[in-house]
Structures are given as structure tokens and as C-alpha cells.
Specification:
heterotrimer, A mainly alpha (about 325), B alpha/beta (about 375), C mainly alpha (about 300), A: about 325 residues, mainly alpha, two-stranded antiparallel ribbon, 14 helices, 4 strands, about 75% helix, C: about 300 residues
């Protein structure tokens, strides 16, 4: 546990000093989104990596969080700090209710059902024009503010978003080592065995599903109030897939892996910008190669690579 | 270690780009175009045109001796990306003005960045809310949807057709069209008897059209961009619907006629003047700009220039004008843009003012009809 | 009074005509969903993989036909088999290069690999053929045919006929040929099939080839109506998916009926309820079926798998 805490502190310090390296440049703006995506990836990882339940609809929860926050503040004039917990609560209840029937399903069927759910949510964003502004989006969402401090620049948003992200990371790390975390892993390995051990599997799965959705909703609120504009495109099927990819590429069941995955996939388009139209091909190809050759994700793949290189060097030394 | 390497490379890139700013006398302008993704039909011609115009300007010696440099990024139609790239253009590339984004959604998202950083932005999107209410740093070149709607409604009024059915695509373009079709209806003595939508990727709209056939509509107005309207044109023909069909300026390119084939015949739509450039009388103020654009585009890309590309043409030329009249600082460019008066471009004759950052009136559109796989102007 | 009665009657026939038209439209889109859905289930039953790249083969069918027609100037009767052959080759390569070499073929990794495959195929198609939408000429003219007040196009008849033909061939293959029976054996129990001497790997390869052929055929017959572009595969693929789920992931009639039901409900939904929520209807049906009858509309209940 001490080691975990040390790891977290190191990570937190790294995050805190990172902006110094970027001097308010554009990459800082990207890092804000790395923060939001890390939060989402960690949330999905709780469900996917710990409890072994796939979801292809998490962008939907992210979207509901963003839209509730957006509509309540921009249209109804609420304070963002009030809208955020309200949205999270609403999403939690919704996810809890849907969780019961949906988590009865397994494997591919669960993937399909969550995918369907995500698409339905997306369609609702598009069609309820009077409320959400429909496909043209919702603008005029206020920034977060504390007193006279308005979070309207990249550097302020960076620290705001990462405060939440670090809290989520710490929470997840703790959860993994707790009784609940162990129960979750038991569910992942064998539901029957977990049930025999006295775990209320069904309730536990629904709880994790709801928890994961709540974190997504918080990320959604952060997104809405930092962007000040939202439109349905950001919450579609593609984004659900991207989240899934972040988790898998980062490494299932690893919180820091989710960060690596989120960072890689958010920064990748920046690196591929020079490739212009070729970027989609490179992206697809890279994804394929990653899953084929680094199936355990970055968090296990990188040390593996080093080990293999060390062995090669040793062999060369012996020869 | 990885982090360190990444940091080092980023710092060195920043350093390199910082030195580039001081290269002799170039004016940097940024471009945000949706070159890939669902709005690629807008972004691609826009980027191509912007590149072409900048090249032509530089060939002719630049602006007052200054070369132009275009730094264009692909937003793939995503608002988040558009905001990030706008920030990148401003903070890392140090551009003096930005052209784009291509869609209304992206433009709305980017506005806050432009306003905060005080950089002139000339959007290529049509949504009316981009410049209404007026934002200090934001202008646009694409004609408001309202103008297109009014063009159709005027024709309907003239021919005593008052009941219309509208069928709009459920994306930003269609949603904005739908809003304007509804809000302008009463003013023009039109009543909407049927209001339907279709998805951007839908492949069959006979269900909606069958419903419309059952209504008492005297005209059908469809608001969308390829390929949906072409499918609708074909479906209308299949169902034997004789009600006159109107489209939006979203399909005013040869591509639509090619896709819809026979079914396109007789369809009327409001369009920027570029597709009928040759048919315009010599007295038309835009004629010379239009002919130049069409000729250049053909030369550079071996393709027809369309009015989407025209939005970028107008944006670059407006910037050029502003720089010629004032200087190349952000503040003077903005001031000069606002003073633009009677600039005959591709989209229309622009006259900006402190109260109007869209700058066009309904003469920007002509009503055209598809006849024998070509366009004719409807009088 | 008479006039009112007449009007009333007229209204009723109008409604009947409308519903007939909705049904026809629905059946033809449904047939396409069915073909794609069968492609999904063939791979699923043989390998347990949900192939998210299935929709891309639909796109390949249309785009390749166009390529052979326009660039190589082949006649239609030659362009279609060529397009199918190339798609089959793509399916084969996909299995050999992406699916088989997978080191840890967990369901999750398989999902990601097929998604990556679909992004890659779509990207390559975009680079090769550009982003424009293209029209393909109908097989035999486009003069509307009127049936009891509803109208359809000759292409609709082609779609229904080819779908029926494919189903028949499919049935014959799976029940009356050695390879087909072997594939079915694999789907029941891969290990047992392997033990009795069936080359399971080859059967997996087969399933990818067959489903890419089905997908591309669906893409080809529908393209004259809907036109084609590099990104048509996504939504069609998802709908085909729904069809397969409604049919309980079987490769036979159940999926066909699933596709047709989906098509008709969508069309009725768009006409009678709300065109905006039309796609939502498909997915709500999907959810309801998964909640209430996860074995599909027609399947027998299966005991829970651990």
C-alpha cells in the first residue's frame, strides 16, 4: 500500500510540474483533454478491467453529464458547481436502473446492448432540439468560477481538471486494493466462484457500472464548462470506441495504464498531423499492431520490451 | 525518461517555431477546415481554395511586398479538435488571423478562443448565430441560411404555393435550415404542413416521402447535403410524386446532378452564383471574381470550383484587402475588415459594419433549376 | 353526407396504400440488413467473434464495383463478380493478417482488432477512391413499377431475389456439403470438431471469406439505390448487427426474418411515428430483445454459460 501511495505521489508531482515545460503553449490545452480522457478511461477501466464487463456506450454517460451541466447552467442559469453534482446524481440513478437488466448480459451481448444504449442517447441529444440545440450544439455554457477566479484559461483549467482526475485516480487505486476491489476481481475471474464466496455479484456489478457512469458524468461536466460549447458529435459511438481503445491499449486493470492509453490516444493525432489524410490509416494500423504485439497494453508491454532488450544485450555479451 | 524526451522535443519545436515567426515579412494566416469526416465536402474545397489563393497572391508579389503563409489544419468536423487547433494556431504558430472553421458547430466552439485571444476569425460556416449577436473578432463569408430560405419562399409566394412539406437532414446543416424554414414561414405567408427529418447516412427516404404524399403539400423543400438529397430525388421519382421539389444550396454542385441522374431534372434550388458564373450578365458585379475563381480552380485541381471553396476564397481576399488598407497587426486587420464595403466576392457583395459581421443580402443567392444535366437561372 | 363518406373511404385507401408503401420500403432495406446480419452470424457461430469490420465489406462491394465499372470499364456482369472476388480476398487477408496472428485472442482484443481493421479498411478506401459519394447505375432500368398503389423500382426486385437466392445457397451449403457441415460442427464444439479431423483454422478462414462475400454482395445490390462512399459501412454494419441479434445470431432464416422485421418497423416508425427517432427504434428493439429474449426472437432458451 505504501508503494501505491508513493507511486501516486510521484504521478501527482509529475502532473503538477508538467505545465512548466509547456509555458502556456498549445500542448497545455491538449493536456487538459488528456486529463478529461484519463478520467473517462479510468472510469471505464473500473468496469472493464476490474469487473470484466465491457461497455461500448460510455460516451453516452459522458454526454449526459455534459448536457445536463450545459443545459442547467446555460438555459436555466444554475451555478456550474451545483449542476455538476446534480448531473452526476442523475446519471448515477439512470445507470443504476439500466444496470440491472443490462448487466445480466454477457460478453458480446453486453457489448451490443451498451452500444445500442449509447446510440439511443446520441439520437436523443440530436432530436431534442429545443432542449439541447440538436446537431448545431449548445453554446454559452459558463466557465467554472470560485469567487472572482474564473477558470477561463488553459492553465487554470489544467489544474482544475487534473485535481478531479487525480482524485479519481487515487480513489481507483484505493478501490483496487480494498475488499470491493478483491470482490470485483473475483467476479472478473469467475462469477460462480464469486457468488459461492458470498459476493452479491449482481448488485456489485450494477454498483460498479453506476460508479463508472458517475465518473463519466463528472468528466462530462468538466468538459462542458471548459469547452463552453458542446455538440452531439463528441458523444457518439466513435468516442465510446476510442475510450475502449484507451483502456485496452493502456492495459486492462491498471489505473496508470489508463492514463498512458488516454495520453497516447489524445496526443497521437498531434503527432500524426503532418501525415494529413493518411492519419486515419496510420491510426487504424497502429491500433491493430498494438493489440497484436502488445496485447497486455502499454503498462505491461513497455517493461516487457525493456526486459527483452536486456536479454538480447546479455545474449550479445555472452556470445 | 519518455516524458523527458517528449518534453525536450516539444521545447525544441517551440523554439524552432518561435524563430520562424521572425522570418522576413511573411504574414501568417491560419486555416481550420473539416477536410475529413462528415463535413469533408465543405472542408476539402475550402482548404484547396485557400491554398490556391495564397499561392496566387504570392505569385503576384504578395501583399505590399509581404508574402502570405497559410497554416491549415484538419479539424475532421470535431468541435473539440477545432478548439485545440485554434489554440495551436494562435499560441504556437502565432497567426495574425484565422480562416474557418467549416461548420457552424465548430465555429461556435472556436468563437470563445478567438474572442479571448483577440484574433480575427473569418468563419466559412453558414449558421446565423455565428455573427448574431455580433462578436467583436468574428466575421463570416458563407451566406446565412435565412437568405436561401427567403429565396425559395419568394418563389413560392409568386406562384401562389403556400403549403409546404419540409424534409431536413438531422445534422448541423439540416437543423439550421429547419429552424430558418420554420421561423421565416409565417412572414412569407407559408404554412408548413409536414415536418420530417432523415439521418445523414440514411439510404431510403420513401417512408417520409410517402407520408408527405399523403399530406396536402404543394411543394417539398429538402435541406441536406450529398448524398441524402440525391436519394430523396430518386425516391420522389420512384413514388411518382409530382409536387415540385426544392433543395438547399447544400447540393449546388455538379456532384448532385451526377448522383441523382434523371431524377435531378426540374429540381430548383437557391445557390451562390458560382455554378452559373458563365450565365450571369456582364453587368453583374461579381462576374469577374467568379470567373477568376472558376478558372484558377480548374487550373489547379482539374475540378469544378463550388461555392464552398468560394467561402475560403472570399475569406482570404477579404483579409488581403484588410491588410492592404491597414497593416498586418490583428487589431488593424479587424478594424479594416469591419470597414469592408462593396467587396464583390464569390458568395456575394460583402459590406461589413459594426452591426453586421455577415455582410451579405439576399442577392447573394440566385434560384437555379436543373435542366438537361446543367443549371439554368430561374427568373 | 355522400361526399363525406366518399372522403372517408378515400382516406382509408390512402392509408392502406401508405402502409403498403412503408412495408415495401422496409422489406428492401430489411433484406440488406439480413444479408449483413447473416455475415455477422456466420463468423460469430464459427469463431465467437463479432466482426465489427463487417460493414466495411458492404462498402467494399459497392466501391469495388464502381471501380471496375468506371476505371477498368468492365461491363456490369463482369464487374460484380470481380468486386465480390476482391472482397473475398480482402476477407481472407483480414483473417490471416489480423485475426489469426493474435497472441491473446480474448473477446476484448478481438473486438478491438476488428474495430481497428474497420478503421484501416475505411481509411485505405478513402485514400484510394476519395471522399466523394458515387452513383452506380441500376442493374435493369429505373422505371418505377406500381403494385396495388405502392411503387417500387426494378432494383428492389433484384434485391429481394438475390437475397432469397443467397439464403437458399447458404442453406444448401451448410446442410448439404461437407465443408458446410464441418463449419457447423465447429460452431457447436470447436474442440470436438478438431478431434474428428476437421481443420478448425481453415473453417475460421472460410467463415471470414463467406461473410465478406455476403457483405460485398449486399453492398453491390443496394448501391444503385443508395449510392456509395467510403464511409457507408458503419451504420449499415450496426443495423445488420441488430438483425443478427433479433435472429439470435443464427445464420439461417431467423436472421433473415430479423432483418426484415427491423426494416419494416423502421420504415413504419419513420412514416407513422417520427422520422427523427427512426434509428432509435432499431436500437430500442435491440435492447428489448436482449433484455427479454437474449436468445433471439425465435431461439430456444439456452442455459447460462459460465
Amino acid at each position: 500500500m505504501k508503494r501505491e501511495l508513493l507511486k501516486f505521489l510521484l504521478f501527482a508531482v509529475l502532473i503538477l510540474v508538467a505545465p512548466l515545460a509547456f509555458k502556456g503553449g498549445y500542448l497545455l490545452n491538449v493536456l487538459v483533454f488528456v486529463g478529461i480522457n484519463t478520467m473517462l478511461a479510468v472510469a471505464l477501466n473500473l468496469l472493464l478491467g476490474y469487473a470484466g464487463q465491457i461497455s461500448l456506450g460510455h460516451a453516452g454517460f459522458f454526454g449526459i453529464g455534459a448536457y445536463l451541466s450545459g443545459v442547467l447552467t446555460a438555459t436555466c442559469g444554475w451555478n456550474p458547481w451545483l449542476a455538476m453534482p446534480f448531473a452526476a446524481l442523475a446519471v448515477g440513478i439512470l445507470a443504476g436502473l439500466i444496470g440491472f437488466p443490462i448487466l445480466k448480459l454477457k460478453g458480446h451481448y453486453l457489448a451490443m446492448a451498451t452500444l445500442g444504449l449509447g446510440i439511443i442517447i446520441y439520437i436523443v441529444f440530436n432530436e431534442t432540439v429545443d432542449l439541447t440545440g440538436g446537431p448545431s450544439g449548445l453554446s454559452g455554457i459558463p466557465n467554472f468560477a470560485v469567487g472572482s477566479l474564473v477558470f477561463d484559461s488553459d492553465i487554470k483549467n489544467y489544474y482544475l481538471v487534473w485535481t478531479f482526475t487525480l482524485a479519481v485516480v487515487l480513489f481507483s487505486v484505493n478501490l483496487a486494493g480494498s475488499r470491493v476491489g478483491r470482490a470485483l476481481r473475483a467476479v472478473h475471474d469467475s462469477e460462480v466462484a464469486a457468488r459461492v464466496m458470498g459476493v452479491n455479484v449482481r448488485l456489485l456489478k450494477v454498483q460498479v457500472f453506476a460508479l463508472s457512469a458517475v465518473i463519466c458524468s463528472l468528466a462530462g461536466s468538466l468538459y462542458a464548462h471548459t469547452m463552453t460549447f458542446i455538440s452531439p458529435v463528441s458523444f457518439g459511438f466513435n468516442f465510446s470506441v476510442e475510450l475502449l481503445t484507451m483502456v485496452v491499449i493502456g492495459g486492462l486493470g491498471s489505473v496508470y495504464g489508463s492514463f498512458l492509453g488516454a495520453a497516447l490516444l489524445t496526443l497521437l493525432p498531434e503527432l500524426l498531423r503532418g501525415a494529413q489524410d493518411y492519419d486515419i490509416v496510420i491510426y487504424g494500423g497502429l491500433l491493430m499492431v498494438m493489440v497484436m504485439f502488445v496485447p497486455g497494453g502499454l503498462v505491461r508491454g513497455i517493461p516487457d520490451l525493456f526486459r527483452r532488450m536486456a536479454r538480447l544485450r546479455e545474449d550479445a555479451g555472452n556470445a | 525518461m519518455r516524458k523527458l524526451i517528449a518534453t525536450c522535443s516539444v521545447v525544441s519545436i517551440c523554439f524552432l517555431s518561435a524563430t520562424a515567426v521572425f522570418a522576413a515579412g511573411t504574414v501568417k494566416i491560419g486555416g481550420l477546415f473539416a477536410v475529413t469526416g462528415p463535413a469533408a465536402f465543405l472542408g476539402e474545397p475550402e482548404r484547396n481554395t485557400a491554398k490556391m489563393v495564397v499561392e496566387e497572391i504570392n505569385k503576384a508579389g504578395g501583399i505590399k511586398g509581404h508574402k502570405l503563409e497559410l497554416i491549415a489544419y484538419d479539424t475532421s468536423g470535431d468541435a473539440t479538435k477545432a478548439v485545440q487547433l485554434a489554440t495551436k494556431l494562435i499560441k504556437d504558430d502565432h497567426v495574425t488571423a484565422i480562416i474557418g472553421p467549416s461548420t457552424t458547430g465548430e465555429s461556435m466552439a472556436v468563437i470563445q478562443v478567438a474572442e479571448r485571444e483577440q484574433v480575427p476569425l473569418i468563419s466559412c460556416a453558414a449558421g446565423i448565430k455565428i455573427t448574431e449577436p455580433v462578436k467583436k473578432w468574428v466575421f463570416k463569408t458563407a451566406q446565412n441560411d435565412t437568405l436561401a430560405v427567403v429565396k425559395i419562399y419568394e418563389y413560392l409566394q409568386k406562384h401562389k404555393l403556400s403549403k409546404v412539406a419540409i424534409l431536413t437532414v438531422s445534422d448541423g446543416f439540416g437543423a439550421s435550415g429547419r429552424e430558418q424554414l420554420k421561423s421565416q414561414a409565417a412572414k412569407n405567408g407559408i404554412s408548413i404542413v409536414s415536418d420530417d427529418t432523415y439521418g445523414p447516412k440514411d439510404t431510403d427516404m420513401t417512408a417520409q416521402l410517402t407520408k408527405i404524399r399523403g399530406s396536402q403539400a404543394q411543394a417539398i423543400i429538402c435541406w441536406g447535403t450529398n448524398p441524402g438529397p440525391a436519394v430523396i430525388a430518386k425516391n420522389v421519382r420512384q413514388l411518382g410524386i409530382k409536387t415540385p421539389l426544392f433543395m438547399s444550396h447544400g447540393v449546388s454542385s455538379k456532384k448532385f446532378i451526377e448522383l441523382a441522374g434523371e431524377a435531378a431534372e426540374g429540381i430548383k434550388l437557391p445557390s451562390g452564383k458560382v455554378i452559373v458564373a458563365e450565365l450571369l450578365p456582364a453587368s453583374d458585379r461579381q462576374k469577374s471574381s467568379l470567373m477568376a475563381f472558376v478558372k484558377d480552380y480548374k487550373l489547379h485541381y482539374h475540378a469544378e470550383g463550388d461555392h464552398f471553396g468560394g467561402h475560403a476564397w472570399d475569406a482570404v481576399m477579404l483579409l488581403k484587402n484588410a491588410i492592404e488598407h491597414g497593416g498586418d497587426s490583428r487589431v488593424t486587420i479587424r478594424e479594416q475588415l469591419e470597414k469592408t464595403h462593396g467587396f464583390a466576392g464569390i458568395g456575394g457583395v460583402f459590406s461589413y459594419s459594426a452591426r453586421d459581421h455577415a455582410g451579405l443580402n439576399k442577392d447573394a443567392f440566385v434560384l437555379v433549376e436543373v435542366r438537361k444535366k446543367g443549371w439554368v437561372i430561374v427568373k | 353526407m355522400k361526399v363525406r363518406e366518399f372522403l372517408c373511404k378515400k382516406r382509408k385507401t390512402m392509408q392502406f396504400e401508405q402502409i403498403l408503401q412503408y412495408t415495401f420500403s422496409g422489406l428492401s432495406t430489411g433484406a440488406i440488413y439480413a444479408l449483413i446480419g447473416i455475415g455477422f452470424s456466420i463468423i460469430f457461430t464459427a469463431t465467437g467473434i463479432i466482426n465489427f469490420a463487417q460493414g466495411e465489406f458492404v462498402m467494399l462491394g459497392g466501391m469495388l464495383t464502381l471501380f471496375f465499372l468506371e476505371v477498368l470499364k468492365l461491363p456490369l456482369w463482369a464487374a460484380i463478380p470481380s468486386a465480390v472476388a476482391v472482397s473475398a480476398l480482402a476477407g481472407l487477408l483480414f483473417e490471416r493478417l489480423a485475426i489469426r496472428p493474435l497472441r491473446q485472442p480474448t473477446p476484448l482484443n478481438l473486438v478491438i482488432v476488428t474495430i481497428a481493421g474497420s478503421i484501416l479498411i475505411r481509411g485505405l478506401a478513402m485514400l484510394l477512391w476519395g471522399k466523394d459519394t458515387h452513383a452506380i447505375p441500376p442493374f435493369t432500368g429505373d422505371e418505377p413499377i406500381s403494385i396495388a398503389g405502392a411503387t417500387i423500382l426494378p432494383q428492389h426486385i433484384w434485391i429481394l431475389a438475390i437475397t432469397l437466392l443467397i439464403i437458399a445457397v447458404n442453406k444448401f451449403f451448410f446442410y448439404h456439403t461437407i465443408s458446410g457441415k464441418a463449419m457447423r460442427a465447429c460452431s457447436y464444439n470447436r474442440r470436438a470438431a478438431g478431434l474428428v479431423g476437421i481443420d478448425v483454422h481453415r473453417m475460421v478462414l472460410f467463415s471470414f471469406v463467406i461473410s465478406s462475400v455476403l457483405g460485398s454482395l449486399a453492398g453491390i445490390i443496394v448501391a444503385p439505390l443508395t449510392m456509395t462512399a467510403y464511409d457507408v459501412g458503419i451504420m449499415l454494419g450496426l443495423k445488420g448487427f441488430c438483425a443478427a441479434i433479433i435472429g439470435g445470431m443464427s445464420s439461417g432464416m431467423a436472421t433473415v426474418v430479423g432483418g426484415l422485421i427491423l426494416g419494416v418497423l423502421e420504415s413504419l416508425g419513420a412514416g407513422l411515428i417520427s422520422s427523427g427517432y427512426k434509428d432509435a427504434i432499431a436500437f430500442i428493439i435491440l435492447l428489448l430483445i436482449l433484455f427479454i429474449r437474449p436468445q433471439g426472437l425465435f431461439g430456444k432458451a439456452e442455459s447460462e454459460r459460465v
